[in-house]
Design goal:
656 residues; alpha/beta; TIM Barrel; Rossmann fold; FAD/NAD(P)-binding domain; 5-stranded parallel sheet; 31% helix; globular
Length: 656
């Protein structure tokens, strides 16, 4: 059998799971109700795809710390029962994660400051919490038990206690946040007491046969925090009441390590996680950029863990398992690990999404890819992500699609982004789209400039212009539109495209300056490339920080910025460029009327783009129906990014 290790059944307490691919708890932002249709559709899609176990997003056990699923309320049962009914035909089991956030909340939901083990503020929230009294501890212990009972009564298959990532149980466990001098503080045995009391109370309500797991972290990743040896000692104290461990990494002190981006190696958590998983005979779950069934199978085969969580990979493609089982690995849509759709979507925009999968968390509302009887002739101009995604969707529906790309390769600006250090995962999406176009028989023309005469000779019914955008070279700057950069045409001034070998060449010297006007990732990638090439880098930005417009920096840019900070990297914020000479740049302050001279023999501009919409403007009003998508249709200088391009292209293709 292919993937025989990871697809083998596994026993967790009194429950048998059909395989070892699971989904750890993750925030979705999807609303809860007595009939949570969107959440049901999201989980049902992954159940249909072959997942054996999903641990639902955190359920708040007490009114002082409510979360998306209100397990503190008896009314939660109706929604849980509908969710169980929806996934049961596919054999996927459901566990409910139980949590109290403690000091990770800004306020006490019942009024007043948050509760915690001690008065140590959360490093992100910053509010000084109230140390819990014995009465409050007893109340929360009882609330965990009551919540577990509600989950069991609603038909959920098990529960998981969230003792990871610096939430309330973790706040009692860690010496960083537990400064108590009573029976709950001091020694490790005392700091573990709260968790042991919760486990005992849960067992008293649910019985011994009901699966109960604990989510831990292998390392808190901060000086003075719990390290692997400490967690092994915790495990030894709680093991009699535990059926499995779910091992993750880090806390709020280094939040980005919980789900690192593409800069991190695949399986980056494993060297620390297996120090816990190999120390127990209980089943265990590991996670951390495990993106393929092959990788998961190797982990299980090596005895590094019993089960593997693949949350982000299954957001990108809910059918990952069934495709791989069928020997169609090339058809699996790869996760690129940017976190901008999933993590930032759920926590900043309020709803989980996916950069590469436009249907993620929209399974209940996205129009299906339905065949069309029209079979119209469609000509697509531009082989970037927007053009490729549109061509794929349109061909899937039965349209006759031709795509014209003026360069020698498909991929557009995604190829440039993928050329940046640590950004190569982006290329995997380009390669997947290209393979899909071949599978669907799209007629692709490379090295072909789609002029109006060519379009006319093809006699298409529909023209879709996805010609993207191009960097400006005239010294224009958004921060000072009336003051173009003097000397922007000098030979040592280049664009990010030039630096990565697309459209020009860049000679890299010893003193480099990167000017960031877009607030996105391109300036970060340029700076890292210059550092890798041995230059000292000064990063000048019109914003108040680095990567200012990338949402949720702790989960999106943190890894890239850490890498930059480790090098000869210097930042000047709230500034613009006045002039460039052979060896210096005059940098002006946007906050005050002063400037400074910065040594620079290489200047890289990450600035506003021209929108390549000339063909669209010329064809509009002609015999063919004409549409504009992607960066060419952008409303901001830096474009809307890959996720918007994919979503807009998909919506148009399904509407035609």
């Amino acid at each position: 059998m292919r993937y025989e290790h990871v697809l083998a059944p596994v026993q967790v307490g009194g429950l048998t799971l059909k395989n070892r691919i699971v989904r750890a708890s993750h925030h979705t932002g999807l609303p809860w109700s007595d009939s949570p249709a969107e959440l049901i559709a999201y989980h049902e899609a992954r159940a249909r795809g072959g997942v054996s176990l999903t641990i639902l997003q955190t359920g708040g056990v007490h009114l002082s710390s409510p979360t998306g699923i209100p397990v503190y309320d008896d009314g939660v049962r109706a929604g849980c029962e509908k969710l169980v009914t929806a996934v049961r035909p596919y054999g996927m089991k459901l566990f409910q994660q139980l949590q109290h956030q403690g000091s990770a909340r800004a306020t006490h939901a019942l009024g007043g400051p948050p509760w915690s083990a001690s008065d140590v503020p959360n490093p992100v929230v910053g509010v000084v919490p109230v140390p819990m009294s014995q009465m409050q501890i007893d109340e929360v212990v009882e609330s965990f038990a009551a919540a577990a009972g509600r989950a069991q009564q609603a038909g959920l298959d098990g529960v998981e206690l969230h003792a990871a990532h610096g939430y309330l149980i973790g706040q009692f466990l860690s010496p960083l946040t537990n400064r108590r001098d009573d029976q709950y503080g001091g020694s490790l045995e005392n700091r573990t007491r709260f968790l042991r009391e919760v486990l005992a109370a849960v067992r008293e309500v649910t019985g011994r046969s009901y699966p109960v797991g604990v989510r831990l972290v292998a390392d808190e990743r901060v000086p003075g925090g719990l390290a692997p040896a400490d967690w092994r000692a915790v495990m030894a104290l709680i093991e009699p009441d535990v059926d499995y461990y779910n091992v993750s990494l880090s806390t709020y002190y280094k939040f980005g390590d919980i789900a690192r981006t593409m800069e991190a190696p695949l399986g980056y958590e494993m060297p620390l996680s297996e120090q816990l998983t190999r120390a127990t005979d209980l089943p265990s779950i590991v996670t951390g950029r495990i993106m393929t069934l092959e990788h998961a199978d190797r982990i299980v085969a090596a005895g590094e863990a019993s089960m593997v969580s693949m949350v982000r990979a299954l957001i990108a493609d809910p059918d990952l398992i069934v495709k791989a089982q069928a020997g169609q690995e090339e058809r699996v849509r790869p996760c690129i690990g940017s976190n901008q759709g999933c993590m930032a979507g759920a926590m900043v925009r309020g709803r989980l999404g996916c950069v590469v999968n436009p249907d993620a968390a929209r399974e209940d509302s996205s129009p299906a890819v339905s065949p069309t009887s029209a079979g119209r002739r469609i000509l697509v101009v531009g082989g970037g992500p927007a053009g490729m995604q549109f061509a794929r969707e349109a061909a899937e529906r039965g349209h006759r699609v031709s795509l014209y790309e003026m360069t020698k390769s498909l991929g557009g600006q995604a190829l440039i982004a993928a050329a940046g250090p640590g950004r190569s995962d982006i290329r995997s999406h380009v390669e997947w789209l290209a393979s899909e176009l071949r599978r669907l028989g799209v007629d692709v023309h490379l090295n072909t400039f789609a002029e109006p005469d060519l379009v006319a000779s093809a006699s298409p019914d529909i023209v879709v212009v996805a010609a993207g955008s191009s960097p400006r070279r005239d010294g224009f700057q958004v921060a000072r539109p009336g003051e173009p950069i003097v000397g922007a045409g000098r030979g040592h001034v280049c664009t990010v495209w030039d630096l990565f070998g697309f459209g020009g060449r860049a000679a890299i010297g010893r003193e480099a300056l990167v000017y960031d006007e877009t607030g996105g990732f391109e300036a970060l990638s340029a700076a890292q490339q210059l550092l890798d090439d041995g230059a000292r880098v000064t990063f000048v930005t019109r914003f108040a920080g680095v990567g200012a417009l990338v949402p949720m920096p702790a989960m999106t840019t943190a890894g890239a910025i850490e890498n930059l900070a480790a090098g000869d990297f210097h930042v000047i914020t709230d500034s613009y460029l006045r002039s460039v000479t052979d060896d210096k740049v005059e940098v002006g302050s946007l906050l005050a009327g002063r400037s400074l001279l910065v040594p620079a023999d290489t200047v890289v501009l990450a600035s506003a783009h021209h929108l390549n919409r000339e063909l669209y403007d010329e064809l509009a009003g002609g015999p063919a129906e004409v549409h504009l998508i992607g960066d060419a249709a952008a409303e901001t200088p830096s474009g809307h990014g890959l996720q918007h391009a994919i979503q807009a292209a998909t919506a148009l293709a399904r509407a035609i």
